[in-house]
Amino acid sequence: MPFGETANILVEFNTYEALFWFLLGVAAYSYVRHSHLMSRAWLLFSVGNILLFGVTDVVELYTGGFLHVASWLLYWKLVHVLGLVVSVIWYMCVRWYARQ
């Protein structure tokens, strides 16, 4: 079914977004399995954060959106966005220190 043919475009978008986060989490987990032991804990944190961010999209599908329900879903999404930002900053620091 092509994108945009359903009655509710937001439901379809959240479905594809959840699928994207789950696939990204699985791909990142396969990378973690071949990583060094020192960075494995942070990578597992990042993978868990990515997968749980996908779960928020699934919850959003069933609740009708984070703006229509209580603010707990919005806070849950914000916590995971913060976790993603921390993961990216951590990755940039590790790469920068590795070059020196």
Report on this structure:
Helix 1 packs antiparallel against helix 2 and helix 2 (37-63) packs antiparallel against helix 3. This protein has helices spanning 9-32, 37-63, 72-99. The protein has three helices and no strands. The chain is 79% helix and 0% strand. The radius of gyration is 16 Å and the shape is elongated. The model has no long low-confidence stretch (mean pLDDT 82). With 100 residues, it is mostly helical. The chain has one domain (9-99).
Mind sketching the topology for me?
Blueprint: H1 9-32, H2 37-63, H3 72-99
Helix pairs in contact: 1-2, 2-3
How many helices does DSSP assign?
A: 3
* Proportion of residues in extended strands: under 5%
Q: SS-based structural class?
A: mainly alpha
- The stretches of 5 or more residues where confidence is low (pLDDT under 50) are none
| Total strands | 0
Key structural traits:
mainly alpha; 79% helix; 100 residues; 3 helices
Short characterization:
Helix content is 79%, strand content 0%. It is mainly α and 100 residues long.
